[in-house]
Every structure is written in structure tokens, then in C-alpha cells.
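Lab notebook, bench 4. The sequencing result for the construct came back, and we need a structural model before the next group meeting so we can plan mutations. Quick request posted to the team channel:

Model the 3D structure of this chain.
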Amino acid sequence: MTNQDQLLGLPVPSAAGEGAAGESTVGHGLVPEQRGPAQRESYGVPGAVAPAVAPGAPADEPGGTARLRVDARRNLESVLRAARQVFGELGYGAPMEEVARRAGVGVGTVYRRFPSKEVLVQRIAAEEVAWLTAQAKESLYGGSGPWDSLAGYLSRAVGSGAGRLLPPSAFRYADELATFRDAADVPQVPVQRGAEPVWDADPRQLLHLLAALVARAAAAGELRPGVTVADVVLVLTAAVPVHARPVRGEGDESQPQDAPAERLLQILLNGLRAH
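Done. Here's the predicted structure in C-alpha cell form:
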């Protein structure tokens, strides 16, 4: 049994494209900005929204009901997209008014969908953790080398911005995992059988997967001595301030807009890698 298996206490997926429980991972390659409410069920996040048009309902219902449902879905997608941007830039302490402003809707529309800010925060955090978890599974069991698996995962996670939306509990649990020097000493997180979708949104599973990636890279001598899963989580949250990003004129491709972010990531990866 490998170090990562000891850390996870989970079976190795039977084939590429399946999760640890044999579930399909279709849609896991989408970054947060590409994911709308329609993708939530594929991550198993509880509380999925109803479809835009009820099953069996005619598209041309009298009174424009179908159109209203489409508008409601569009508003929801706008709110979720804006919430990811606002919370990613300002943290989960950002006001709901800013979410509404960026979504182009009234704050009342936000509260009709999410009765409290806590509900919206939980929704965003759960979706991002589920996406990060799916990516970590693919990296751990994808067949790449130890360093390439870890570095590739961090590149995707940082590029998507999902790492900046981790819930505070993830950082606390990362600090706890960092105190264990041996994979066999890491306490296992109990999995509620029949509740794997909820487990996929549990930050503890994500941290166990990251700890496995770190342990494998360290065992291969490709990670700088002393690097822990807590350090890797800090890299996940890396971000270049908005005002530091280059402003380009229309048609100006001389400097990619994500160049500073890519440079920051490479600096951080170089700091993690053994030389």
C-alpha cells in the first residue's frame, strides 16, 4: 500500500475518469468561471437548484412562466459568478451588496435565492472544494510523476481561482495534518457510506489528497525538505492583486493578462521544489 493510500484510507479508482467510488468525474475539468448551477449535481453538492423548465412543462406556458424561469436561472448564474469573484478577491467577509452590484441585480434578488450570506458562502465553498477534490484525485491517480502531479494540480487550482475560496476550516485542518511526519499516523476521516457526494465537498478529504501528493513528492526527493501540506494550501490561495495586472488595449497581445499570475506561480513552485 502506498503512502497516499495510507493517508486517504480510500480505494484506488478502477479507471481514469472515475472517482474513488467509481463515480463519473465528467465536468471536473471546468474551472469555476465555467461552472454554473447545472454542474452542481455532478459534484454531488447538496441543495441543487431546480431546472430552468420543470420536467414535462411546455416551453410556451401561458403568462411567460417558462421565460421567467429562464431569467431566474440567468440571475442565479450571475449571482454565483459574482460571488466567486467578490469572495475570491475580498474574502468571505465581503458584503452581499457588492455581490449584487457585480451580478447586475438588486440585493433583494440575491437574498431571495440565498436567505443569508452564510448560505451563499456555504454554497460557493462546497462547489469549489468539490472541484478541487476532483482535480486532486485526477492528479494523484493520473499516472504522472510525483512532482509533475503536484505542480500540475497547483497550476490548475491557482489558475482557476478556486483555492482562494477554501473555507477557513481547510486551513485549520491543513495545520493539523502538517504535524504528522508519517502517513500511517494521520487519522482517517470516517466516510458515511451512501453519502459520497457530500464527502466530495468535505475539505478534509481534499486535505488528505493534498497530503498524499506532498508525501509522494517528498518520498521521491523532489520536494524541498520541511514542506508540508499547510505550505501547499498557502500556494493554492496565491493571487496577484487586480491593480497589478496589465491593462491592455484592444488587440494588444504583447503581454498576456495572466502573465503576473503565471510568474508568481512559478516563483512559488520553485520555492517548493528540491534543487
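The first helix runs from residue 3 to 8.
Will bring this to the meeting.
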